[in-house]
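--- STAGE predict ---
source: upstream dedup step, 1 unique chain passed
mode: sequence only
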Amino acid sequence: MASYYAGLNIANLANGSQKSFSIDDERKVRVFYDKQISDEVPGDTVGDEFKGYVFRITGGNDKQGFPMKQGVLVPSRVRLLLSAGHSCFKARRSGERRRKSVRGCIVGPDLSVLSLVIIKQGENEIPGLTDVSVPKRLGPKRANNIRKLFNLTKEDDVRKFVIRREVTPKNADKKPYTKAPKIQRLVTPRTLMHKRRLVTVKKRQQEKSREAAAEYAQLLAMRQKEQRERKEELRRRRSSASRNSVSKQ
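--- STAGE serialize ---
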């Protein structure tokens, strides 16, 4: 019977390796049918080399290339209105929404590729998957992550422990060189000086604001006092004028 799958993409997170397998018999992959993304499936029926292995389903694509989306509980393709933050969609501008076709998260015979992750390793080694170790191409970039990787203290200089990678130029005449990432959240004397300056400027602005508020309060009190005195003077003039008019009568 012809296979409904172009292959199984199996990843081994323990050593960073990945390998694709072509399955020609549909009966071998029926164990995945009606399973969902994140379900764990034994690999005994897939082949003798997978005996004892346990896989977790992480995704897949149907024969037209539409990806599986977690949370869509149908074994077919649907059109959903997606926005920024959703999987299977990349917003090109702020607030953009678009209706796109995605495949449900339930495995069916219409899939061409199924992505799996090894959860439990079996008895036999799989050549190219469990017997190799793929080193990480890039090391950590954040200062605290570098300290955690090399078990460093606050006093150690993180810049001496950055993982550098060698780059071979396309031009054979040029020599190979190394590249290192720019360390993020690195506390240096310059950053401390910048922070102290910001604190000083903030305190200076607060002091200036307090002085301006005190000066304004003093000016306001003086204006209110002058206004009260003018009102009192006007009241006295009116009362004296009324008394003079009464005495003349």
